[in-house]
Amino acid sequence: MSLRWRLTLVIGGVVAVMLFGASFLAYISAESELNSQVDQFLSTRSAETETGLASIADPAAALNLDAITSGTALGFRGGTFASLERADASIQLVLPDGRVGRISPPSLPVTTEDQALATLSTGGVSELFDREDENGDRFRVMVSSSRFGVLMVGRPLADVEQTLDGLRGWLLLISVMGAIAAAGVGWVVADRVLRPVARLAAATEQVAETRRFEADLRVEGSDELGALARSFNSMLSALRASREQQERLVRDANHELRTPLTSLRTNIDVMRRRGDVIEPHERDSIMEEMSEEVRELTELVTELVGVATSSAVLAPEAFIEVDLMELCRAAADRTVGRTGREVVVEGPVMACVHGDPAGLGRAIGNLLGNAVKFSPTGETITVIVGSESVEVLDRGPGIPEHEIARIFDRFYRSDSTRTMSGSGLGLAIVSDIASAHGGGAFARNRDGGGAVVGFSINPDLSGSASLVDSFDVG
Question: Are strands 352-355 and 381-385 parallel, antiparallel or unpaired?
Fold first, then answer.
């Protein structure tokens, strides 16, 4: 069953239950009120008749003795109880000897309990009963004991039953029609509410079939469905950006890989064709060049793998407490061991932040590698550690002002550095690791020559920009 039908049935069912419940309570309330009115009426008529009987010294003497022989309920001698007759109630008196005198017709059924109560000749006992006469008509009867016997005052319930039957029919009709109307309204509401969801499903299917991410949804309103459409559009935008970055990464990687591979292929062809006649010094030169190309390829592949896997490494939910000073000292020791260059680390004794130790260590190592590449031999490289930042200072040629904004782009290398080793990914990785930690990378020229390159982090905003957005290669 579709969600639209389920919503329709739920809305219609809830309204139907509420209507039937309200109708049932209304019917019960009306029935109770009508019965209460009948009981109040009987109580009033019984009190009036009691008062009238009290003015007659001997009600039994007023009985129509001629009616005794007929076997019917006794009447009263002409005019004796005329003032007590009522057209809206049946009134009769049951005497202690069992005789019944009718004051107002029609006759009410008399039970043995009524006759037994008449023999007690006590007053003040009143009870209400539902009785049926010989024709099946229902009466509400008040039976009261008095010094004359038992006074019975009754009223037919036909009017009450007719009123309740009519009310029951109307309430049932209203409930059924209300439930049908509610189901119709539920269908319309469900259709309107689910329309954006249907568009979202269609857009999702289109994306799945075409692998294109241009199907933005139209955002309507600021409610939860509007938020869902905006979130879907944001997801499509991120996927578009990710695909564009993947394509650019592939193009750039292809360009960077082509040069060393071409050089290797050329040298291998030379060695294959002329290996027997090549001079030893020429062979050594070719082998050294091939070794350098292999080393560059290894570095490039390593950095490409690092780019492709950084999103898995830098998960903000897995950040732990890290000491930047300790990371910087460790990176400095590795640089000194590999290059023999002097590296000085300055800063507080400890600089603890929340982050990914492997990612931050890689960023610091890339900064030091960049400084080693550009700083002249014999110059000291300085690392300045702040509470939430790291700066690496060198004494190299500095950075042209128009290139400062681009040095963190992937594969970017200026004309002056294209002949140097490197892939152009090191500083790009630094920038993205910093972004994943809520900060960013920066660069500026250093007073007296050289450059200052570093990054800052903001653990409170970690994850605001993740490598999933920048380097997810699927």
Answer: unpaired
